[in-house]
Amino acid sequence: MTNVTHSRPLSPHLSIYKQIPTMVMSIVHRLTGMALYAGTLLVAWWLFAAASGEATFDWVNGIFGSWLGRLVLLGYTWALMHHMLGGIRHFIWDTGRGFDPETSTKMAWATLAGSITLTILIWIIGYAIRL
To answer: I want to staple 32 with a disulfide (CB 3.0 to 4.6 A). Which of 2, 83, 103, 125 is the partner?
Structure first.
């Protein structure tokens, strides 16, 4: 008996496709969406701590204020900004615009650059207000 699966064509996979900015940003959009679930749990934890009393709130603020906590919050901020801009990009596509390769590639790079820029601005403003 012969193995019939050897003669079947392979289904395309990520390792076969050339990675283009639009594809990468689509994958990152999905990943940031998943990361926002975890980040929203952290926001909820912070709100519960605020409602639980000063000692609990100070403890949670201490965790978020550590270098690791700030790194996580920085990542959450970037994920939120990237996901928002990716959503705007998808909204533009929903209007039937921006599908040509040049425009979609520019929009993909703009999503990345915009998310980094907005994250930096948010953190600069946050630290400026804090002082």
So the answer is: 83
Q: At what angle do helices 54-65 and 21-52 cross, to 10 degrees?
A: 150
**125: alpha, beta or left? (left if phi > 0; alpha if psi -120 to 50):** alpha
CA distance 53 to 117: 36
Residue from 109, 47, 69, 63 nearest 77 by CA: 69
Distances (CA, A) of 33 to 11, 38, 40, 131: 27, 9, 11, 32
- Asked if residue 105 belongs to a domain, the reply is yes
Q: Does residue 70 belong to any structural domain of this protein?
A: yes
Q: Could you tell me which of 23, 35, 24 has the C-alpha nearest to residue 84?
A: 35
Q: What is the pLDDT of residues 97-127, one digit of tens each?
A: 999 999 999 999 999 999 999 999 999 999 9
Structural domain includes residue 2: no
Read off the CATH number of the domain in which 112 is found: 1.20.1300.10
For residue 3, tell me if it sits in a domain. Answer: no
